[in-house]
Amino acid sequence: MKKSLFLLGVTAAVLSGCSNQEVMDVADYANQPIKFSTFVDKTTRSGDVAQATFQKFWVFAQNKAVSSAEWADAFTNVQVNKIGDNNWQPINTYYWEQNKEFRFAGYANGESQLDNTVVSYDAGSTNDNSTSGLLTFKEYSTDGKNDLVAAMGNENNYTWDGSTGDAPAVGMTFRHMLSKLTFTFKTKMANTYTVAVSSLRIEKATTKSTGTYHKDNNGTIKWNSDGLLNYTGTYTFENIPNVTADAANEQGYFSQMCAPLYVIPQSCGTLKVNFTATVKNDAQETVGQQDFVATLSYSPSETETNLQKDTWTAGYYYNYTAELKLEDINTDPNAKPIKFDVTVDDWKLTTPGDDLTLK
Q: Could you tell me which CDD domains the record lists for this protein (predicted)?
């Protein structure tokens, strides 16, 4: 039999924002080749994309004659690798063209390149009131393991006439396309118990959707699954072997957090999380095991004006917390928690001691 469990959902961190973002500079210090010199100006609050861990990304470029309205591909889905500090190199060399305007867009899907049938860039698109084109992730499918970030050139158009000096630096601000999700389990059971959480999963969630990005309004991200087949699936989280493994906090709670997943932004008010909790004593004998189910509702605080009730928003980190109690897990209906009834006697008077002689 499954038991219902109340979960407390909180937004743990904003993954990106105007004051906390990753900035990449695409710069050229040769005559005409387009080269990449990349740095991360500020890490995200969650620490997902930082200079120390960000190793590669992929870039699109389109250009047109200054007097034309027709954009054409300059290069498509080109991998750029980190060679050293502030040193990035594409696997191919591309060149600035005189009297041409360029537009750039980039992405990183963890360490994986997306197929051209999934990701594309249209520099001339004005869909969704874009002034910089549209980067599209068509029928993007995820198991939650990859953090998807997207960017466009901070300037709408880049030009260089090939004269002596530095080519323009193409600044790109990467933003998180997905929501980040984790679960924290806490208990006041003694650490002589091993409290394990397994089969932690969210079923019937959106795992495939089409996303779009453009840089207006500090980054505009939209996801839509309308018309897609088989767009729901299961997000499976790693097991927690022992909630009581570390020291308790000042309130007496032991707690552990599971490894987070990156999920497609979606309505969450009707989604449910399922997991199994197993408790063993110091002799590693199972004293209780129970399946739980809980609804993943979410209510933003008054200060979280960018967030909506029962909705996971792109770029935000959600942490749901559940308290595990042995009386909810034990399979023996007669089992009761050990409680203490404590009485402290009043101070008892003793025979007065000898007078003190002060010297």
A: BF2867_like_N
